[in-house]
Structure formats: structure tokens, C-alpha cells
Amino acid sequence: MIKSRYILLAALLITLATIGTATAQDSTVSLRRPVRAVIKLAPLALVDQDATLQAGLEYRTGQRTSVQAEFGYGWKGLSLLEADLEDFEKAEVWRARSEVRFYTNRYRTNRRKEIAVKSSFPLGNYWAIEGFAKQINVTKNEYSYQPIEASSAPRYLGQMSISRYVAGTHVKIGRQFAFYDPYRRTFSRTLFDIYLGAGVRWAINDVRRNSPTSMGMDCGCGPGRSFETEGSQWTPSLTAGLKVGFGL
């Protein structure tokens, strides 16, 4: 009877030691509160020639998949760079993007130490298929200039209004990561998303002249594009960027 008690006590001690050892070796990192959606801002959209204030939302749809949508709006003078939209009386930009993401593997903070992550929002390397659309509306005053020997001022003819429509698709690769707190063994809810991609885009100009004697546009309108070209245009397209996200 006494031997049985000692045997049970020894078995209990061995079990507790095993559990303690397993707990000490557990290197899984998890969030304290589930997060499925991430709000994102695109700061680099302000240095685009068609600058916009742009925000988006990524929502996790599976263990390694998510969907993301972005919307942006801009106006003349918003870009931090010298932009061709400054040549117009009025200008505005509307932009929309949506994509499906496929995350390739489990995200790890330290591969040599095999520290794995269980997160309800997606982290790590990914590839994505993106569709995008953009509309630029510009307005320019038109004048009729007299010969040099004439003393009269240029005669105002009216305004030219143009809407440029752009649509296309990209295949992208990127990485989304978060800062890790080794003391609390948790990740911050601030994320960073870096990506690049390539694809094609289609563009067409809709020109509306209010004067039958319109002289046309005299603007080159940015690298590789024109607001006065008639007919549609297919061109290669590249994309790259950085987004800052906040887990909800």
C-alpha cells in the first residue's frame, strides 16, 4: 500500500515536470485579442504625380488568404512633388484598388530559434492579384492670342474639360510585418506592408471643349502620358509602395 502511494507520487511529480518542461520550450507567440481586419494608410501616395489621400482595409478570409480594398482622393497642389496637374485651373483625382492576397508561409520572428506566430491577422510574405481604377478630372482656360503687332489682350474663349480614365491589373509580391515585444511575447497592432508589382494599364481621354475655336492642349502632362491624345492606350505598369496598418 505504501509502495503504491510512492509510485503514484513519483508519477505525479514526473507528469508535472514534463508539463513544466513543455511549457518552458513553447516558442509560440500569439496576440492577446483576436484581430481580423487591418486599417491601412498609404503615405507614399502623397509623392505620386497624381497624389491622393489614400486609405484601405484588409480583411482576413482564411488561414493564408485575405482581401483588401483602398480608396483615395486628391486635388491640385496636394502632391509633394512638382506635378503636371499644376498646369490646369482645376484638377482632382479619384483612385480605387482591390486585391486578393495569398500568404505563402508562417511568419517567424527568428528562424534559427524557430519562434512561430499564431495571429488572427495575416503576417509574412505574400503574393497578390490587384485590380485598380483611376479618374482624373482637369479644367483649363482657353484664350485666342492676337498677332504680335496687335495691342489687344488675349480673348477668353471658354474652358476645356478633360476626364482621363485609367484601369489595369498588377501581380504583386510583398511582406507584411509587425514589431515584436520579447518581454510580453506579443506583437504590436501597428503593421508595415512593403510591396512591388508589374502589370498592364489601359487609359482613355474624354475631352469636352466649350468653344468651337479651341486651340487644344499645350501640356505634356507627365512622363509618358498626355491628356489630349485621342483613342485608348495600353501600356506596361509598375507599382511599389509602403503602407502602415493598424489592427482593429
Automatic annotation (TrEMBL):
It comes from the Bacteria. Keywords: Signal. The keyword Signal applies. This is DUF3575 domain-containing protein. Residues 1-24 form the signal peptide.
